[in-house]
């Protein structure tokens, strides 16, 4: 755990200061008047933030005067944070990240900022995942640090800096590999092997960095729209300017994860920024899920993750075992990327998904928080060997009869990855009359089944009622999935004009976190040969239409495929409506 300078208690002891006597402070302001006062007092303005703060070099007496200015929120000496260190794991299997990856979850499309000592710009298993990076001026890469690596307090003596954010220490590269080393057959596997990594170099080659550099890195990352910020760093004391930066990032939806610190054994010693309530604080466990003896603990801990002898990447194309809560933190950062890629984008919902899925490994709450990280369970998977069955298709079409009943064919297809299918239960409900008309059960087995089931509403008067067919598929372990489709009965007319029929209605879902995209394949027919239009629509849960495609048709039959898309919209149903020239229409919906 880093030792940091304190706040201002003795600054007024110095009068007119020379340049050598100037101190570097972070000033939080309330308004433009406070900003102007700070600038007037400054011998040099080092940095201005987009939020209400700036970093200045100033005489101690002037700094004390600023503390007493009502337009100034705080004045703090620009202390430093350091990388939490020690040696590294196996944590991919322990956290079931490997199961998530095997299930096709890779974190693709998600941006993870590693706010640290940089990332090796050419590592064999990281380079494919590297995006744009950034470095604070005081932290920029150097080849003259002196060696010793994270454990020795010096840099790694790389021979060349390939970018200003290149890693001259090892620590940031190690964290990056745990979060998102590529699944490319080389070296190690990260938690989210297709997430994009961004080096945000705020710690110099000796592993330390000033509060304002760290705040600036958080600010830069948030401005780039990064989804996750991984911070394996911290200090004993809070920093107001870093706190302001955390608020800035939180307001922009960034999920922030930080190492709890290496001050253990202790009971209430979580470092900053991990103890900030906008940040997920991570403690460290070993391969047996025991608490690491160095791990900081306290009520702010929310998750535990592997952090003892963790194997990961170091420059150049090398690998090493490190230990520390620094190594635990990127396990959770990678998991957050996986949850976001899976479609959960709200920062609080991501946090909830991770906490709800954690495994209780028998540690005290201030040691493990909600438990030890479980990546697969956070994505709805897990290692219990039983996934819920899936409804792959459900369509309902009216059958023309002469017996006075309303009859429908429900065509369906179901599957189960575990091969444990047991039963398909179908219920026909007359929504207009508010009555259940028929319930039937079909026995199924294996990993896939499909059929068409006839359902009858006996004695229907042909008045054009709305019907819903609900399908529940259950496996032998009792897990189930429900889907529903709707259809409107054709109204009987005196001139013999019948409503169109929907013969095929299939929906393919190609949605991602940014777009709701569906391809609708349809075939319709009309016994009277006077088809007019077919319309497909995306509907939200409240029935709002967010995209529509309408096609002019004619004759007795028609088929086509429509592409529907809407940006960042929660689509609940796809509706298909077929209309003939007489105004008769048939409507069906599918849940998505």
From TrEMBL:
<dbReference type="GO" id="GO:0006508">
    <property type="term" value="P:proteolysis"/>
</dbReference>
<dbReference type="InterPro" id="IPR037045">
    <property type="entry name" value="S8pro/Inhibitor_I9_sf"/>
</dbReference>
<feature type="compositionally biased region" description="Low complexity">
    <location>
        <begin position="545"/>
        <end position="559"/>
    </location>
</feature>
<feature type="region of interest" description="Disordered">
    <location>
        <begin position="376"/>
        <end position="396"/>
    </location>
</feature>
<dbReference type="InterPro" id="IPR023827">
    <property type="entry name" value="Peptidase_S8_Asp-AS"/>
</dbReference>
<dbReference type="InterPro" id="IPR015500">
    <property type="entry name" value="Peptidase_S8_subtilisin-rel"/>
</dbReference>
<feature type="active site" description="Charge relay system">
    <location>
        <position position="116"/>
    </location>
</feature>
<feature type="domain" description="Peptidase S8/S53">
    <location>
        <begin position="107"/>
        <end position="371"/>
    </location>
</feature>
<dbReference type="InterPro" id="IPR023828">
    <property type="entry name" value="Peptidase_S8_Ser-AS"/>
</dbReference>
<dbReference type="InterPro" id="IPR000209">
    <property type="entry name" value="Peptidase_S8/S53_dom"/>
</dbReference>
<protein>
    <submittedName>
        <fullName>Subtilisin-like protease C</fullName>
    </submittedName>
</protein>
<keyword id="KW-0645">Protease</keyword>
<dbReference type="InterPro" id="IPR050131">
    <property type="entry name" value="Peptidase_S8_subtilisin-like"/>
</dbReference>
<dbReference type="InterPro" id="IPR022398">
    <property type="entry name" value="Peptidase_S8_His-AS"/>
</dbReference>
<dbReference type="Pfam" id="PF00082">
    <property type="entry name" value="Peptidase_S8"/>
</dbReference>
<feature type="active site" description="Charge relay system">
    <location>
        <position position="326"/>
    </location>
</feature>
<feature type="region of interest" description="Disordered">
    <location>
        <begin position="545"/>
        <end position="566"/>
    </location>
</feature>
<dbReference type="GO" id="GO:0004252">
    <property type="term" value="F:serine-type endopeptidase activity"/>
</dbReference>
<dbReference type="InterPro" id="IPR036852">
    <property type="entry name" value="Peptidase_S8/S53_dom_sf"/>
</dbReference>
<comment type="similarity">
    <text>Belongs to the peptidase S8 family.</text>
</comment>
<feature type="active site" description="Charge relay system">
    <location>
        <position position="171"/>
    </location>
</feature>
<feature type="region of interest" description="Disordered">
    <location>
        <begin position="475"/>
        <end position="516"/>
    </location>
</feature>
<feature type="compositionally biased region" description="Polar residues">
    <location>
        <begin position="477"/>
        <end position="488"/>
    </location>
</feature>
<keyword id="KW-0720">Serine protease</keyword>
<keyword id="KW-0378">Hydrolase</keyword>
């Amino acid at each position: 755990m880093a030792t940091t300078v304190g706040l201002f208690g003795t600054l007024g002891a110095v009068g007119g200061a020379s340049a050598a006597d100037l101190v570097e402070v972070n000033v939080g302001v309330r308004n433009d008047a406070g900003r102007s006062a700070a600038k007037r007092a400054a011998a040099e303005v080092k940095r201005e933030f987009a939020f209400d703060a700036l970093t200045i070099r100033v005489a101690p007496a002037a700094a004390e005067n600023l503390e007493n200015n009502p337009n100034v929120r705080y004045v703090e000496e620009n202390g430093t944070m350091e990388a939490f260190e020690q040696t590294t794991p196996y944590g991919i299997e322990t956290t079931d990240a490997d199961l998530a990856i095997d299930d096709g979850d890779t974190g693709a499309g998600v941006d993870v900022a590693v706010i640290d000592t940089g990332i090796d710009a050419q590592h064999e298993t990281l380079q494919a995942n590297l995006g744009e990076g950034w470095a604070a001026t005081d932290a920029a890469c150097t080849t003259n640090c002196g060696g010793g690596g994270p454990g020795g307090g010096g840099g790694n003596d790389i021979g060349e800096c390939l970018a200003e954010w290149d890693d001259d220490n090892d620590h940031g590269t190690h964290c990056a590999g745990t979060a998102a080393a590529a699944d490319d057959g080389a070296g190690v596997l990260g938690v989210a092997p297709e997430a994009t990594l961004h080096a945000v170099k705020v710690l110099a080659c000796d592993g330390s960095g000033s509060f304002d550099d760290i705040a600036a890195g958080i600010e830069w990352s948030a401005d780039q729209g990064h989804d996750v910020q991984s911070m394996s760093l911290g200090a004993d004391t809070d920093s107001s300017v870093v706190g302001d930066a955390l608020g800035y990032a939180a307001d922009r939806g960034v999920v922030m994860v930080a190492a709890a610190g290496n001050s253990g054994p202790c009971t209430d010693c979580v470092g900053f920024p991990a103890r900030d309530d906008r940040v997920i604080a991570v403690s460290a466990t070993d391969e047996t899920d025991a608490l690491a003896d160095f791990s900081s603990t306290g009520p702010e801990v929310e998750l535990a993750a592997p952090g003892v002898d963790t194997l990961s990447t170091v420059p150049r194309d090398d690998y090493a075992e490190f230990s520390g809560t620094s190594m635990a933190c990127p396990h959770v950062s990678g998991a957050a990327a996986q949850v976001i890629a899976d479609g959960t984008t709200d920062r609080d919902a991501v946090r909830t998904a991770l906490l709800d899925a954690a495994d209780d490994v028998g540690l005290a709450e201030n040691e493990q928080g909600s438990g030890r990280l479980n990546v697969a369970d956070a994505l709805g998977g897990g290692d219990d060997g039983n996934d819920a069955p899936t409804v792959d298709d459900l369509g309902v079409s009216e059958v023309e009869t002469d017996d006075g009943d309303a009859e429908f064919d429900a065509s369906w297809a179901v599957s189960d990855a575990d091969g444990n299918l047991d039963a398909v239960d179908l219920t026909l409900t007359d929504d207009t009359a508010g009555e259940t008309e028929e319930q039937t059960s079909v026995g199924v087995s294996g990993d896939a089944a499909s059929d068409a089931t006839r359902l009858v509403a006996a004695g229907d008067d042909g008045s054009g009622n709305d019907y819903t067919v609900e399908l529940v598929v259950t496996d032998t372990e009792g897990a189930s999935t429900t889907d529903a489709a709707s259809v409107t009965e054709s109204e009987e007319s005196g001139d013999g004009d019948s409503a169109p029929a929907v013969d095929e209605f299939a929906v393919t879902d190609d949605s991602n976190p940014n777009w709701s995209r569906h391809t609708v394949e349809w075939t319709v027919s009309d016994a009277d040969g006077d088809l007019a239009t077919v319309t497909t629509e995306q509907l939200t849960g409240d029935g709002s239409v967010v995209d529509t495609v309408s096609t002019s048709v004619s004759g007795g039959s028609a088929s086509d495929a429509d592409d529907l898309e809407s940006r960042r919209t929660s689509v609940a149903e796809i509706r298909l409506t077929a209309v003939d020239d007489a105004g008769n229409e048939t409507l069906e919906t599918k849940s998505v």
